[in-house]
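Dear support,

I submitted the protein below through the web form. The confirmation email said the job was done, but the results page showed an empty box. After a refresh the structure appeared. I'm attaching both so you can tell me whether what I see now is the final result or a partial one.
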Amino acid sequence: MAQIPFDLKHADFARLAEVGLRLPGLREVKTLTQTSWIEAPTTIIGTVVSGAELQVGAFCSLSGGTLNNVHIGRYSSIAAGTIIGVHEHPTSWLTTSRTSYWPQVYGWDELIAPDRAAEIRAGKRPFTRSCPITEIGHDVWIGQGCFIKSGVRIGHGSVIGARATVTKDVPPYSIVLGTPGRVVRTRVPEPLIERLLAVEWWRYSIYDLFAAPFDDVARALDVIEDRIAEGAIKPYEAPLVTPADLAEPLGLAARLAARFPRPLARAS
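What the results page shows now:
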């Protein structure tokens, strides 16, 4: 996957934070894949791996941990210490070592076999399951210190309890606890899950939905469904930020300032 380089400075992070993009998790990142994007506003405090595929929806609070090769829907929350996107190793090959499929790791091929390094790289066997994309749906809450295996899909509305280990796909609106992680129950009854998935409330700005009683899911859905049917609310069209935009932070900040003209306090 082609990589897009950028080099955000301290002043750039502060400037972008004022217009809804808090991105301290990108401080050590110098490239992302060309298919990466971030919707505004959102907050990424967790450490992003340089070179990763990263797609993050609006209104996310990614408060910590490590993020690599992951797609995250809107309104999702990830607590500190969570690990997503750890590289897998080929357990059925001669060796599990990364050198078997990535001979240039740490530059060792050029150190040990400088005359044959190019030939070795050209003949390497790909290991396509090294770090598949992890899919995290909309409105997902992942508690502190979880481990999410690469390539797992976590359905919309799910909750992953603190310290859980998730190695399998998680159905929508499930609550997962333990190691290995297991579904202990659903967040809401099945009929409400069907309505939640049908209405896709996350397509909208939550600030257009505050007439709904959030603490009563059935009644909240009644209000949201009525407002959608009446045309009283429109889907939220989030500003989309690409790695190419991050390479031009002044222009990006100006574009976001035009959309969000009232700057946020830098300490918020």
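Response: this is the final, complete result; the empty box was a page-load delay. Helices lie at 10-18, 108-112, 117-122, 190-199, 217-230, 243-246, 249-259.
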